[in-house]
Amino acid sequence: MLAYYLRLGLRSLRRNPVLTGLMIMAIGFGVAASMTTFAVFRAVSGNPIPWKSGQLFVPQIDGFGPSGRDPGDNGEPPDALNYQDTLALMRAHPASRQTALYPVAISVVPADASKQPFSISGYAVTTDFFGMFEMPFQYGNGWGTNEDDRRASTVVISSKLNQKVFNGANSVGRNIVLDNRDYRIVGVAKSWDPHPRYYDVVNTSGFGDAPDFFMPFSRAIDLQMDTDGNNNCNKSPEGGWDAWLQSTCVWLTVWAELPDAAAVQRYRSYLDGYAADQKRAGRYNWAPNNRLRNVMEWLDHEHVVPQETKVSLLVALGFLAVCLVNTIGLLLAKFMRRSQEIGVRRALGASRREIYTQFLAEASMVGVAGGVLGLLLTAGGVYSIGLVFEPEVAALAHVDFGLIGLTLLVAIGATVIAAFYPTWRAAQVQPAWQLKSN
Amino acid sequence: MQIQPILAALKRHKAGTILIALQIALTLAIVCNALFIIKQRVTHLSRATGIDEQNIISVRNQWVGKPPSQQVSGLTATDLTALRQIPGVVDVYSTNSYPLRQGGWSEGLDYKPNQDHSTAHTAIYFSDEHTLGTLGLKLVEGRNFRADEIGRMDIRDKLGPPTIIVTRELAHKLYPDGSALGKVLYLNENPTTIVGVVDRLEVPWVDNWASQWAEQSTLVPVRLAMSIGGFYLIRTQPGQVDSVAKQVSKTLYGVNRMRVIDPKDGVQSFSQVRAKAYARDRGMAILMGVVCVVLLAITAAGIVGLTSFWVGQRRKQIGVRRALGATHHDILSYFLTENLLISLGGVIIGALLAIGMNMWMVSQFEMARLSPTYVLAGVVVLLLLGQAAVLAPALRASRVPPVEATRSV
To answer: What pLDDT does A436 receive?
Structure first.
């Protein structure tokens, strides 16, 4: 019977090609707009490390105090740490694993003199970084605590840099010259670029090119390597590198791995104790004002999802709603125009249920066609998304099976939902009245 | 035109009436907000930087091996001399940042040393005596920096220039009641004198956080010798941006190979800088524009579809009316009025919805209040759209012959 209804539906849809085309286009456009913006939203708002995001925390210690804040800050401490507080956290080690980090830029001079030097960017981190963030290795491994303590010139490079400099060969144990200094390669990372780049959303938008290398934090400080990111001072330090390290300028991030609630509690009380100590010592003259946020809380606090992405998703969903209202109206018109046909079928013994099946089948066909159109438009939309969103964000949006499935599901589901009222009206048609009036 | 019979007829088509009104309401709400977003973005991205954008090139130069600050000064001076020799170059200077760069140095200016909260936020542009000429800034008061007052500092040194040039906006913020020229302020606890005021110069950031002080910039007579490198700004003869830009990398590598000028975006014309800085705004404006157009088209199509159905359904009644003496015009105006009534209902709900939607967005995002003009404009657009959409079916209705009344099917 269903096959028959589908044939009937097809015939009816063919009878009013304009109306049918209108419905298909409305569904197609509505779904495509929603899915395209959703593809972007999905790309930027995801949890980059779902299995562990509740265990990784960023501590914030207020190094500026109330006078260093703008009224708009709502009493929030700065989103980075100064060197002294970072050093204290690293020494006390109140977490099972923790790392300090800051972005550094360096240049590479190719051995081949005909090639021009190029610059690469990376991070100064400590040994725990690799385990905490579960960075996969192609060759070798991260360095150990020993190298951190020895302030060793070791480096972990990305597979991309390894490809560029060593043609992809296993370069572990070899040396690489960065800014005229030798570094020993201990590991080559597999391509690893979580989105958003949650471990550093203070200095980056969270998107963009993956880092090329990682080097020991202690070594970077010894070499007086400046941060390649932001540096904020509430009070300008007297000149020089050492004065900067002693100052309250903030430019560092610390991450702590805290596996359970008890560890979180311990870490919190450590932070409070530390801030209280600083107050007693006269370094800070305000009450402790610390924060400890896990990955998702931190991404939210740092507004990693661009506002544009959210607004455009909302507008697209509103657009879909209009398209659905439109479809309800058109289906209603289409179905009610066939009141006579329904009257005849009902008079010949078709139950209301049969009418429901017939018209929902017809509506699903519109849904499928709308879904296919929507799919094509979504593909086109995602492809040309670079025109609308920044290239770094646009590059992340892609069409996969999930999105294809969702597009079809939304299209068919939405159309069927839209068809419920018109179908109900069709099923209410009184056979006697229809037959009599004609 | 009698409205009573139309209302009576509409009562018998509740579902269709409500659907059209609802569609108009939703469309109005979305279109108003979208137009408002477009307007805000366009205003934002067409802000003038105050510099002679057409003839400026920015060059990002990074040094290899982090040479010490003393050495950087010499290297920079050599580069500047070489750049000046490129045919078509008018002037050059080196700096830490420029408008629309989206990164830079900011400070607070104080009336007194050790003030708790700064009197004014300002962006710091490291400059020399060539800066005004290169950027094409208009000096409205005072003088340019003299070559002998240009100092030098490392990035970790404390900034404390004896003299500064400020923008008119900043001067007004600091001294609303009179001239800022010759006044002494405190920058990092060091006294500094305002020796000049330029008409206009935007800060490097276009984001929201700097929007309150977007034109409060300060030029300091200091060369920032950063071992990581910095920026060269080049002003060319009119129309020679492209030809000069092509030679920059080659010239600089010719002077000294131990540097990095990114082949992708190391050398940018200012129009490229502008496009990049406002990519988000432009994208958002385009997206909202497309949404508006498609949405209005779909709503118009929906009205055509439903009205056509009604016309088809009422052919007999129309025939009867025509037979009883109604003119073409009567029938036409019946459908136009019917649509107007439905649209009016729709736009009233839609206007409320638009304002509600905007209020919610204001609470969620950094957005401004919707101006009533946009709601009004949206109302007019949708009413006209409704009338235009209903015209074709209504004309068809008006052509229904009176004889239709006598036909049974």
So the answer is: 67
Contacts of A3 (CB under 8 A, 6+ apart): none
Report how far residue A388's alpha carbon sits from residue A393's, in angstroms, rounded to the nearest whole number. Answer: 10
Q: Return the higher-pLDDT residue of A110 and B160.
A: B160
Eight-class DSSP state of B364 = H
Report the alpha-carbon distance of residue B107 to residue B123 in Å, rounded: 6
Are A423 and A335 contacting, i.e. CB atoms less than 8 angstroms apart?
yes
Per-residue pLDDT tens over the stretch A264-315: 999 999 999 999 999 999 999 899 999 999 999 999 999 888 888 888 999 9
At A437, the pLDDT band (50, 70, 90 cuts) reads low
- CA–CA gap between residue A127 and residue A219 (Å, rounded): 12
Per-position DSSP letters for B157-222, written without gaps between them: SPP--SEEEEEHHHHHHH-TTS--TT-EEEETTEEEEEEEEES----S--SGGGGGGTT-EEEESE
Contact A337/B at CB under 8 A: yes
DSSP A428: T
Tokens representing residue A293 in the block: 């946020």
Q: Of the ranges A33-37, A123-127, B203-207, B329-333, which is most confident?
A: A123-127
3-state secondary structure (DSSP) of residue B298: helix
Distance from CA of A234 to the nearest CA of B (A): 9
pLDDT band (50, 70, 90) for residue A186:
very high
Distance CA B346, CA A233 (A): 54
pLDDT at residue B146 in the model: 95
Q: Are A375 and A39 in contact, with CB atoms under 8 Å apart? A: no
HEC string of A103-129 equals EEEEEECCCCCCCCCEEEEEEEECCHH
Residue A404 touches chain B, beta carbons under 8 Å: no
Q: Can you say whether residue B102 is alpha, beta or left, with left for phi > 0 and alpha for psi between -120 and 50 degrees? A: left
pLDDT at B407 over 80: no
Structure token digits, residue B388: 């235009």
Q: At A236, is the secondary structure helix, strand, or coil?
A: coil
**Pairwise CB contact (< 8 Å): A107 & B308:** no
Q: How many helices (H) and strands (E) does chain B have?
A: 11, 14
Residue B32 sits at the chain A interface (C-beta within 8 Å): no
Assign 3-class secondary structure to B219-280.
EECEEECCCCEEEEEEEECCCCHHHHHHHHHHHHHHHCCCEECCCCCCEEEHHHHHHHHCHH
* DSSP output for A116-166: PPEEEEEEEE-THHHHHTT--EEEE----HHHHHHT--EEEEEHHHHHHHH
CA–CA distance from A105 to each of A118, A252, B244 (Å)?
11, 15, 28
Collapsing DSSP to helix, strand or coil, B11 comes out as: helix
What is the DSSP code (8-state) at residue A232?
B
Tell me whether residues B64 and A180 touch, CB distance under 8 A.
yes
Q: Do B298 and A330 lie within an 8 Å CB cutoff?
A: no
Residue position matching structure tokens 């507080």: A85
Please give the sequence-ordered ranges of beta strands (E in DSSP) within A207-311, or none if there are none: 213-216, 250-257, 291-294
Question: Which value, in Å, is the radius of gyration of the alpha carbons in chain A?
Answer: 31
Complex-level ipTM: 0.85
For the stretch A148-180, pLDDT in tens is 999 999 999 999 999 999 999 999 999 999 988
Percent of chain B with pLDDT over 70: 99
CB-based contacts of A280, cutoff 8 Å, min separation 6: none
Answer whether B27 sits within 8 Å of A322, measured CB to CB: yes
B116 to chain A, any CB pair closer than 8 A? The answer is yes
Report pTM: 0.87
Query: A158 - beta bridge partners?
Result: A189
Q: Is the pLDDT of residue B369 over 90?
A: no
**Is the predicted pLDDT of residue B321 greater than 70, yes or no?**
yes
